[in-house]
């Protein structure tokens, strides 16, 4: 393993202050905050603990429905039947009756905006026959997606023994909904929906971040006595997208205040900084038996990292590779990593690739190299 220590100049950055930006103390019982643009976890508090998710687990019901839409099993304009079980659901509701035939699109809006428990049961029964069978499918899909701290008993988040999700799992699910279903993600930013005019006084989305002018566009709130008040939120600002999950707040006002504080902190305390431009030579690696003695090391893409707003102009970094590199080398081959030390956080690794082709050397090159290696071994033997 070879190391080359260097300094990466980051315009406008300075060292951390004595109190790290990560020291933000949230009132939430559990939280997970994630910068999607860089893949950086900004906050994790009890994030792996399986907790009652309340209506936030409706995101998994929506994931199942979006998957069915994407693979053609259902259509947005397809009507679903309403059972007496769905109609009798308590809590938040679309106020559906057995005579209704809501479309998939109306059910999506009813789940996101109205948090309709009846709408969730309609979807569950429409996709799996029964809610129990649907919950089983949710669990199978959760395992396939790597949601290891999640278990579903129903489609609604209605309090039930064993119905749990971690904040990390909720955040990962939110990232999936944003990245995998852009054609449906826009529904999460709807601020109101009144199905057939039945909910004139309760038609507004409970997401407290929508309408604040901070780039918020999703996703879902939740509340039960056991779970407290929580939400999964996302917003975009300045080319960055942040996903946050908070849970266990005492009331809706505390949830709204904490959600805004956390999201504001995530954008203000951190900034994207350019480390290296695509194609810029950062170092060279020796090439063994190559037609050239070295090959340039460059980032294949513009390299940017997320730094606290209080930082310093110089970051320490190392180019790490196993060397010498064996010829032949192809331009674009990953040869090394630029490991940037980020104060107060884990190092960031940026892949470096070969700048150009380096073919195998001719006969003279190979003989010279072999002689050099042999001479070195003989010297070592004499010295011993």
Give the SSE order as H and E letters. EEEHHHHHHHEEEHEEEEEEEEH
Helix content: 25-40%
**What number is the mean pLDDT?**
86
The overall number of domains is 2
What's the end-to-end separation, in Å? Answer: 25 Å
What is the CATH first-level class name of the largest domain? Alpha Beta
> What structural category do the secondary elements indicate?
alpha+beta
What would you say the CATH architecture of the largest domain is?
A: 3-Layer(aba) Sandwich
Please report which band the strand proportion falls in: under 5%, 5-15%, 15-25%, 25-35%, 35-45% or over 45%. Answer: 25-35%
Biggest pleated sheet: 7 strands, mixed
Q: Count up the helices.
A: 9
Rg (C-alpha, Å): 27 Å
| CATH level 4 superfamily of the largest domain | DD-peptidase/beta-lactamase superfamily
Strand order in space, largest sheet: 1-11-13-14-9-8-12
Can you tell me about this structure?
This protein is of the alpha+beta class. It folds into 2 domains: 2-13 and 275-364, D-Ala-D-Ala carboxypeptidase, C-terminal domain (Peptidoglycan synthesis regulatory factor (PBP3), Domain 2, Sandwich), CATH 2.60.410; 25-268, DD-peptidase/beta-lactamase superfamily (Beta-lactamase), CATH 3.40.710. It has 9 helices and 14 strands. The protein has helices at residues 58-70, 84-87, 104-112, 117-128, 131-145, 167-180, 182-185, 252-268, 363-383, and strands at residues 2-9, 30-35, 40-45, 216-224, 228-237, 240-249, 270-276, 283-288, 294-299, 303-308, 314-321, 325-326, 334-340, 348-354. The strands form 3 sheets. The chain has a 7-stranded mixed β-sheet with strand order 1-11-13-14-9-8-12, with no helix packed on it. A 5-stranded antiparallel β-sheet has the order 3-2-6-5-4, sandwiched between helices. Strands 7-10 form a two-stranded antiparallel sheet. β8 (283-288) and β9 form a beta hairpin. It starts with a strand and ends with a helix.
